[in-house]
Design brief:
About 85% of the residues lie in helices and about 0% in strands. By secondary structure, it is an all-alpha fold. The longest helix has about 40 residues. The radius of gyration is 19 Å and the shape is elongated.
Length: about 160
């Protein structure tokens, strides 16, 4: 249905990208601190948990502010923007970790690994992982918004 048919105007999604980014950065820094402070490695599970937390909290904020769930392609558009932001923040976090936590020999090993990377294999791997991250982000944006919206509806009925 179009916006004219529903009478609902689309929302500017950029502010919700900011909300996602704040949650993502905070969770990412917390995981990085725990990883290097306590020596606990989270790997991809840590990134998935970070994405899920950020997406749910963004969906909750969307429902609270707009008193509705996502309509049309809002969730898919926001999901794509969040995926791109998560890649950016992860790359910056990797650069920060490389500079702050790795000694010279470890940095040299990291740089050698980057130089020997096969670009086509790396791009294919990133594309596959990004697909699953995108699906997870969109799914949990919906979970957060739907749950908050239902609670709001129950609150107005009671």
């Amino acid at each position: 249905m179009s916006e004219a048919a529903t009478g609902i105007t689309p929302v500017r999604l950029v502010s919700y990208l900011g909300i996602f980014s704040v949650w993502y950065i905070c969770a990412l820094l917390a995981l990085t601190g725990v990883s290097f402070g306590l020596g606990i490695g989270f790997g991809h599970l840590g990134n998935v948990v970070t994405l899920i937390i950020s997406a749910i909290m963004t969906g909750v904020k969307f429902a609270e502010e707009n008193r509705r769930e996502f309509i049309g392609a809002e969730k898919w558009k926001l999901g794509l923007m969040c995926l791109l932001a998560s890649h950016l923040w992860s790359a910056l976090n990797t650069a920060m970790v490389t500079l702050l936590f790795l000694d010279h020999a470890e940095r040299q090993g990291f740089m050698r690994a980057l130089q020997t990377l096969q670009l086509d294999v790396w791009a294919f791997s990133v594309a596959i992982v990004s697909f699953f991250y995108y699906v997870a982000i969109v799914l949990f944006l919906g979970v957060g918004a739907t749950n908050r919206f239902r609670k709001q509806q129950q609150g107005t009925e009671g």
